[in-house]
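Example complex used in Figure S2.
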Amino acid sequence: MHLLPTDEQVQIVDTVTSFLSDMAPVERLRPDKYGQIGNPDSNLWPQLGELGFLGLGLAEDDGGVGLGAVEEALVYRQYGRNLISPEIFGITLGAHMAADAHLNTASEIMSGKIRVGLANPRGVVSSDNGLSGSFHLIEANRADLVVVLAPEGPYLLPASAFEDIEDGCGMDSHTLLRRAQLRNAQPMSSRAISNTHKPRALLLLAAYASGLSKASLDMAVDYAKMREQFGKPIGAFQAVKHKCADMAIAAEVAACQVDFASVVVAENRPDAYYHATAAKLVAVEAALKNGATNIQVHGAIGFTAEADAHVYLKRAHTIDILGGDLRTTRASMIGQAAPS
Amino acid sequence: MNLDFSPEDEVFRAEARDWLHDNVPREARPPSDQGMRAFDLAWQKLQFEGGWAGVSWPQEYGGRGLGLTRQLIWYEEYAKAGAPNAELLFVGCNHAAPTLMTWGTDAQKQYHLPRILKGEVAWCQGFSEPNNGSDLGGLRCRAVVEGDHLVVNGSKIWTSSAHLADWQELLVRTDTDVPKHKGISWVICDMNTPGIELRPILIMTAPGHHHFNQVFYNDVRIPLSNVVGPLNEGWKVAMSTLGFERGTASMSEQIRYNVVVEKLVDLARERFGAAALEHDEIGARLAQLRAESSAVRAMTYSIASRAAGGQPPGSEASLMRAFFSQLQQRIRRIALDVIGADSLELPDTDDPWIRPYLRSYSNTIAAGTSEIQRNIIGERVLGLPR
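Predicted assembly (726 residues):
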């Protein structure tokens, strides 16, 4: 038993961290640069593909790097810290499902040539005769394929399957959100594949959320050290210091459970779904709480568009809803048998 | 990262499970007084004789020298077996023993460690004072060197089970002319020494529950050979004592709470129905508590991994402690909501929920209040100014 990253895993994290800090600094999301104009990261996919990050957890026989859910989760934590476009979930899950369904598109997804958006249910999804229901399409404006995060797990569909598309404006100001319908649409992947990747979907969302919680913490702490009132840094006051401590606790809780769940998912253990669900619950809670506290620690500037605090909070709400919100996820958690 | 246990570990686990199955006491643990003392010491003795006390203690002190992973496995099986939480022995096993191993003289180690391990003695703590709780460094219980003895005058308070203990880990001020943290010594105090008087302090859990004491020292003579670590270096020694508490000593409790939560889930399913629970506010809270206690186990594993690699407990131990103490309270609190109206009753014996609920209010006070923990996290982990 060893729940710390190996040297090789640390190296992977270092590589992606340095790539993202060069190519995807959070400043890229400032409203004067992008605002609501959409996915700022599509130009990263081919580069991430070349570095192997888009096929990190896929078997070498399937054209992937041959690593697993542990490495994927470690990298997704960094995606969360840098607020990488949620399209990344479509790409990773889409590549896995395409490979499992023996589709040639798997290699094109992993090289970043094919775009994979996301669809999340707005209500009940029927999967009796193909998929039917109302959805939000996320980051799917130029998508060739779409990953549907259905309650029983993710499905891969052609983007052309969606009908009645209505443009809208997303609360998470740096993602593209539209409404759409599916009517008896046939997925390219089977229900068995959905079930296989359901824990992975929750794990990656949790890992991303744990990154969000850490980024909000770091931003709040940096500000509390620098901003002075009453002649000293506000971080010297317990009212602020203890808020920061609570953020640190929440981020650590999330990170440890994500690590634990990533091993369980990687090894496809029977309790993979249980621990991935637990990871999403604690990580989303941490991301939402830290997102909100970061705004409060910043005071008025935290409420403005020009500070980045709001972007972490809004993204946390997106991650909460994707794959099932807190309420649904808690119902699922309490319904499961305890792992042995 | 991996969660694999070696085949040898799995053999150890099976042996532990079998032994616990055959030996865990079936009678309820008396909640206080001499009955509790006799129970805890007898259970410790039984574990020692079975070879299960001190799994990770060095062999030279009577342990098995098996390392932290095996210790963790033992705690996991201990929790699953529903073995009792022998609280009276906590200070001896988890404070005094590791402190003596690190700082003690050969004579101190040879005398005390086997007695602690075999369940022959109970220890209590003598840190807090009436005017120095959170501000421990300002303690003023005075000890003056006279020949080869220290003569102690002053008072300690909130001393759990002082009336049941044979020995005390006692912090005294041995130099008043230096900055406050530099004049403290950590000494072993024999609780039967003349001049020690106890005043019982009843606690809020149940009528007449004698748990705490105020301890008065009137010209109490303690041999200088009972000073642990150098004279006047007691602050450093005490910080390592508390370091053990914040590090690996709490693992057993952290692991046990997964079992406590599952008992509550079972109770709630029984009471409300499994299907209805999924759409109930209590179900949602229990779900979150399940996730959080699962995270506590993950944090314990990560702390153990770091410790097994020889790294001292770092920031993660402070974060864990602050989180876990509040989580215990949330878990204990929801038990009352699950039980409903009958939670107004205080059972005579066999009380898995009501006394533990009331007792949980001490979780965020003992061993550093939540507020002190947050100061430590803010200043030492996050680097915020004082």
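Chain A touches chain B through 52 residues (CB under 8 Å). Chain A has a mean pLDDT of 95.
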